[in-house]
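ESCALATION

Customer reports they have been waiting on this structure for their group meeting. Please prioritize. Original submission:
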Amino acid sequence: MFLGDLCSFGLVYRRKATSRRYYPTRLGVNLSSTHSRPDETGFVILEPSFKIYANTRSTLQMNRLGIFCDLLYRLPNLVVAKITRDSCLRAFKNGVSAADILSFITINASPVMTTKTPLIPDAVSVQISIWEEEMYRVKNQLAVMFDQFDQLQDFENVEKFAREKGVVLWSDPSQMVLIVTPEADEIIRRFIRNAT
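Update from on-call: job pushed to the front of the queue and completed.
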């Protein structure tokens, strides 16, 4: 039973389901290995142009790169990838942070990269952080806008009432525009009717 589960996970190989012989797959060996292989550490080279060259044969490492990069070429021992806005946004939506991406690159930096200061080019690290902030910069929210005020005094009275109720999302006294939560729509309309 357990051996069947290992086969279905791709950790061991059996020629037939009834065979008593089994062989560990490359994935099984990689995951169970406690020593690091040369292609598993120090395999990433990052250029300021956002291109990544990864000297690895490991499918696991290729898949890890694919989380935040667009894979351009896969050769037997080299992967060429590019960090793009879309690939980073895809990673962020799946719970990967900019710090995670930068940490992965730092930890797996090739010895060629470790001689450079800073290790990750500033243009790349700043841009990845900007892309992450983009996700949280704008938030869609239902709202109701009031902008048909005759006098500034009318606007200020309604704004004060809305602030007391804690329903103001945004206001601009110079243009006499007030934006409130949808739940407050009827309350504000009632207040305006009673005030006139």
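Sent to customer with the following note: The radius of gyration is 28 Å.
Escalation resolved.
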